[in-house]
Design goal:
Elements (H helix, E strand, L loop, with lengths): L1 E2 L11 H14 L9 H20 L8 E4 L2 H12 L4 E6 L4 H12 L3 E6 L9 H7 L4 E7 L11 H10 L3 E5 L18 E5 L11 E5 L37 H17 L1 H20 L4 E3 L11 E6 L4 H12 L1 E2 L1 E3 L4 H7 L7 E5 L6 H16 L3
Length: 383
């Protein structure tokens, strides 16, 4: 299989991720932070080391404010519901994934908040000045998808963050597609909360993600349960990391994420990104040279991740995906990719979305060449 669906989940993972998950869980598959025997203490040390690795990756200060969850959607639900107050106005974009769109929609539908969705331009970027223009007296929060999972464009967080801080608003960033691929400095970019998932560019397994919350950000607790600390206390612990964590952690997921982050740092984020973008540029130019192909927001390799959305004139995107899979053994993602407003913006919402080809660290020139040939043969059918 030629795997071109890395925006969904990077695959395969580095061997060290599989190996560490297996060996660590076999020797330390116990509850961290719950008991005083050696294995439990060593397990908790690995968890804390992972918090520290990710805190450093985002240039945070306190590893305890790095909390784990199932994934970015899970953390975004906790963060958005924990920050929203009756009467608030929230600004977000049309580039968001449903992990942001749906929590905000439900909060809006319940009459708690008002939401403004800013459009993006023809190249796939939101103008930072548009955030300034959208601010109202009751605006409290700005939520931005750092990198689109549909068109791959990376938004100028530092410029947006400057506008947000000028108006003393909260800045929440969904880094699902960028953490581990694009450097993120929460201080320099003015970010209050950054949310990540482990199974994409951080090269961890599915079922693990989390967030880093800056000091002073008033996230209310929305979940309550066991923490292994002060068990006689009736209320859930307010301090981090317990504030956003309850119950036993996904230890196997944290172990895989630990190994994945270390691998990414050893390889170098910039080195991985440079290689992937070179392959993306080859794929972009190759598909654009084929007749009957439409590409979206793909005029330049600057400020983006290696994600290419296309359509073949005369074909439904789902049919193209099926042919790529069945006839060429190429895996990709078709449809609306859980980001429907992006497709409204690029005009593909009424034609069943796009064919998304997303590259990862283990793709090769041969994979790209095979994809170009396959798309060319499919496109030739309509000529």
């Amino acid at each position: 299989m030629i795997y071109l669906d890395n925006s969904a989940t990077t695959f395969p993972k580095p061997d060290v991720v599989y190996d560490f998950m297996n060996s660590f869980y076999r020797s330390h598959g116990v509850s961290p932070g719950r008991s005083g025997f050696d294995a439990a203490i060593e397990t908790e040390e690995m968890v804390q080391d992972t918090r520290a690795l990710l805190t450093s990756l985002f240039n945070g200060d306190d590893p305890n404010r790095l909390t784990f969850s199932y994934n970015a959607s899970d953390s975004l639900n906790m963060i958005l519901q924990g920050l929203a107050n009756p009467g608030d106005h929230v600004i977000t974009t049309m580039l968001e994934h449903n992990s942001v769109l749906r929590p905000l929609f439900h909060l809006s539908q319940d009459g708690i908040i008002e939401v403004t969705h800013l459009p993006f331009d023809g190249q796939g970027y939101v103008n930072p000045d548009d955030f300034r223009k959208a601010i109202r007296k009751n605006t409290t929060m700005v939520v931005v998808n750092h990198c689109s999972n549909v068109i791959g464009t990376v938004q100028p967080l530092a410029e947006i963050g400057k506008v947000v801080k000028e108006h003393n608003l909260l800045f929440v960033v969904d880094a699902s597609q960028s953490a581990g691929a694009i450097p993120i400095d929460i201080k320099e970019m003015g970010i209050d909360v950054v949310v990540f998932t482990g199974h994409k560019c951080l090269m961890g397994p599915t079922g693990i993600g989390g967030s880093y919350v800056m000091e002073g950000v008033p996230v209310r607790m929305t979940r309550f349960g066991g923490t292994g600390v002060r068990s006689a206390q009736k209320t859930h612990l307010e301090e981090y990391p317990y504030r956003l964590e309850c119950g036993t952690l996904n230890l196997l997921g944290v172990a895989g994420l630990h190994a994945g982050v270390k691998w990414v740092l050893e390889q170098g984020i910039e080195n991985i990104h440079r290689k992937e973008l070179a392959l993306w540029d080859t794929l972009r130019k190759g598909t654009r040279s084929i007749g009957n192909i439409i590409t979206y927001c793909a005029d330049s390799p600057d400020d983006r991740n290696p994600v290419l959305s296309i359509n073949v004139r005369g074909f439904d995107s789902g049919d193209v995906g099926t042919m790529l899979d069945v006839d060429y053994n190429i895996a990709c993602r078709t449809g609306l990719q859980c980001a429907p407003l992006v497709h409204v913006g690029i005009g593909t919402d009424k034609i069943h979305g796009t064919v998304r080809l997303s590259l990862g660290p283990f793709n090769t020139e041969e994979h790209v060449e095979a994809a170009i040939r396959a798309i060319g043969e499919i496109a030739a059918i309509t000529r």
